[in-house]
Automatic annotation (TrEMBL):
Residues 21-139 form the Acyl-coenzyme A oxidase N-terminal domain. GO terms for cellular component: peroxisome. Keywords: ATP-binding, FAD, Fatty acid metabolism, Flavoprotein, Lipid metabolism, Nucleotide-binding, Oxidoreductase, Peroxisome. The active site is at 427 (proton acceptor). InterPro entries: ACOX_C_alpha1, Acyl-CoA_ox_N, Acyl-CoA_Oxase/DH_mid-dom_sf, Acyl-CoA_oxidase, Acyl-CoA_oxidase_C, AcylCo_DH-like_C, AcylCoA_DH/ox_N_sf, AcylCoA_DH/oxidase_NM_dom_sf. GO terms for molecular function: acyl-CoA oxidase activity; ATP binding; FAD binding; fatty acid binding. Belongs to the acyl-CoA oxidase family. It comes from Arion vulgaris. Pathway: Lipid metabolism; peroxisomal fatty acid beta-oxidation. This is Acyl-coenzyme A oxidase. Residues 477-656 form the Acyl-CoA oxidase C-terminal domain. It is found in: Peroxisome. FAD binds at residues 145, 184.
């Protein structure tokens, strides 16, 4: 990966691996051929990145980041077309090198605007709009969130009132809080958007529907009459993305601009409702499924940086007089990092399962079978929430593990954090999503109590509530799964009991739900955690792997699951399911696994196969030449362009001289 001499400490840890990391790379990327293809595209993109002299975001202002992002995005799209790349994985790999962990101003156009038209548009609408959108004759975004409302769709205020005389919808933002706020690409890039608005026809409100609204002139890019649009300003991160606001003042659009594949408004204003209201939100389910894999990859980048740096960094002594040791030798550092390595692998597997589930259920939906749609919605919502929370806390642990240098933008960690953590709130706020999943789980729980058939994903609700754990000192994987399913079933039972107790007291259903909501969220998290653990273990134990690789991955499975038990010990101990002695076994095995995984730590992150450009980190370099890179970064600081900053002459020197003058004046008194 690199031509410079590799740091000897980093090289030594690499050489200690007990398995071939290339075989693990094949496991992650579906075999040698796909790995070869991935590396070919990454090497090509790396060469072009250098030739184009693309600038590093760590050294740019917010305005420069947006402009550079546009330059990168338009270049990438031209190259994708020239190279004839069609496969979405190929496209992602090429883009990731050019724009690593960086927002793409065209991103919402591709993942939401185009997708929504594909999923929600009629045949005629797709034929009209998709060719335009795919050649960027129209550049769109998805405008749902408002200044005053987000995940609560029924609270959105934007209206689309049908006028049967002109066969038009009048789209309006009736209040300040009705302004669309936060959509990516809306501020300066998009000229059109899918607007989610309350449909009003024949005097009745029919709820949220999707409307195509042009907001800027296709030639001049100036806002159209009745449209007030712009960027929302500086944010915690995401500097390259022009998240925007949109205020519509009675803007008229043709009737044909309502996406009508499912819900329809006839020319006379008659509303034809869809077979299932959730069909309107299919695009959101897709992007939530994709977010899981993205969160896994972001955490993998962070832990790659922190693990490599921990092999290079020497700090303090363990045994007095024997010299400073690699930070990786400290058990506390191992616990901090190895659990995140395990988590990144677990979430990677869960992301694959989520995407596979979406593809399967979406095919059923396309053929008119909606039976599994509630399952898909519940799973995608919960996994999106769980994975983004895991990523958020994991990246921060990686930053902290790098000490002071982790705080530098040169580490790459702040960029990953601020540009990836928005996943906790975009496309559905996590707590709200967990409550949506909890509603599905409560229905399943009550169905199980009545002896009704359950989806396979929650079939454990029939058997997992009672009894004691059979976990022994061998810490059998099937018993670990059983423990997680028991925890999920028990948490759900307790949440449902709390809910029913309120209802039995005569509490209004909405109030009863609110008073039970924290326990319901915890039940949804427990369900999702069990799903991830089971998916991880089943994937590893059913795959045909070399024995040395299988052994290490089983250790990762154990570490991920046992760490989860220790971190949530109270829930596993409830009702005496796990004993104190079993919990001690879990904790002791966790510490044993840290020591066992130490020789394989660098190989495990190397297997993610990230080129240096994708990590964009001076701490996570493949060659480990950390200190040289940090000094070069420091020397390039704009503050170092002059030996003496102009602020010295404008403020510092006059201030010091004024104090001198005061002292001199006082001495003369």
């Amino acid at each position: 990966m690199a031509t410079a001499a590799v740091n000897p400490d980093l090289a030594r840890v690499r050489a200690q691996a007990t398995f071939d990391p290339l075989q693990l790379t094949y496991f992650l990327y579906d075999g040698p051929e796909k790995t070869k293809r991935k590396r070919f595209l990454q090497n090509m993109a790396t060469k072009e990145h250098k030739e184009q002299n693309f600038r590093r975001f760590a050294e740019l202002s917010r305005e420069e980041q947006y402009e550079e992002a546009l330059r990168k995005t338009t270049y990438t799209h031209r190259r994708i077309a020239e190279l004839g790349l069609k496969d979405q994985t190929d496209i992602f790999i090429f883009r990731e090198v050019i724009s690593p962990s960086e927002p793409n101003p065209f991103g919402l156009h591709e993942v939401m605007f185009v997708t929504t038209i594909e999923k929600q548009g009629t045949k005629e609408q797709r034929e009209k709009w998709l060719p335009l959108a795919k050649r960027f004759g129209v550049i769109g975004t998805y405008a749902q969130t408002e200044l005053g409302h987000g995940t609560f769709l029924r609270g959105l205020e934007t209206t689309a009132t049908y006028d049967p005389k002109t066969k038009e919808f009048v789209v309006n933002s009736p209040t300040v809080s009705a302004a669309k706020y936060w959509p990516g690409g809306l501020g300066k890039t998009a000229n059109c958007c899918v607007v989610m608005a309350k449909l009003i026809t024949n005097g009745q409100n029919y709820g949220m529907q999707s409307f195509l609204v042009q907001i800027r002139d296709f030639e001049t890019h100036q806002p159209l009459p009745g449209v007030s649009v712009g960027d929302i300003g500086q944010k915690f991160g995401y500097g390259a993305m022009d998240n925007g606001f949109l205020i519509l003042n009675n803007v008229r659009i043709p009737r044909e601009n309502m996406l009508m594949r499912y819900a329809q408004v006839l020319e006379d204003g008659t509303f034809v409702s869809p077979k299932n209201d959730r069909l309107v939100y299919g695009s959101m389910t897709l992007i939530r499924s994709q977010i899981v894999g993205g969160c896994a990859r972001s955490l993998a980048k962070a832990v790659t940086i922190a693990t490599r740096y921990s092999a290079v960094r020497r700090q303090s002594e363990i045994n007095t007089g024997q010299g400073e040791v690699q930070v990786l030798d400290f058990q506390t550092q191992q616990h901090r990092l190895f659990t995140q390595i395990a988590s990144s692998y677990a979430l990677t597997i869960a992301g694959r399962v989520s995407t596979t589930s979406y593809i399967k259920v979406n095919a059923q939906i396309e053929s008119g079978n909606l039976d599994d749609m509630p399952i898909l919605h519940a799973l995608s919502a919960a996994l999106k929430a769980f994975s983004s929370w895991e990523m958020m806390s994991g990246i921060e642990q990686c930053r902290l593990a790098c000490g002071g240098h982790g705080y530098s933008l040169a580490s790459g960690l702040p960029k990953i954090y601020v540009n990836e953590v928005p996943a906790c709130t975009y496309e559905g706020e996590n707590v709200v999503l967990c409550l949506q999943t909890a509603r599905f789980l409560v229905k399943c729980y009550n169905a199980a109590e009545k002896g009704q058939q359950l989806p396979s994903m929650v079939s454990f609700l029939r058997t997992a509530k009672g009894g004691k754990s059979r976990l022994t000192e061998k810490l059998e994987l099937d018993q670990i799964i059983a423990a997680y399913e028991h925890r999920a079933a028990r948490q759900l039972e307790e949440a449902n009991t709390r809910l029913q107790n309120y209802l039995n007291k005569g509490t209004k259903p909405a109030d009863a739900w609110n008073s039970s909501s924290q326990s319901l969220v915890e039940a949804a998290v427990a369900f999702t955690h069990a799903f991830v653990v089971k998916a991880f273990i089943e994937k590893v134990t059913t795959s045909r792997l070399e024995p040395s690789l299988s052994a290490v991955l089983i250790q990762l499975c154990q570490l991920y699951a046992l760490h989860g038990i220790s971190s949530n010990a109270g829930q596993f101990l409830r009702g005496g399911y796990l004993s104190d002695e079993q919990l001690t076994l879990v904790e002791n095995k966790t510490y044993e696994l840290l020591a066992a995984l130490r020789p394989n730590s660098v190989a495990l992150v190397d297997a993610f196969d990230f080129p240096d450009l994708v990590l964009d980190s001076d701490l996570g370099r493949y060659d480990g030449n950390v200190y040289e890179a940090l000094m070069e970064y420091a020397r390039r600081s704009k503050l170092n362009q002059t030996e003496v900053h102009e602020g010295f002459y404008k403020y510092q020197k006059p201030f010091v001289e004024s104090l001198k003058a005061q002292v001199a004046a006082q001495s003369r008194l």
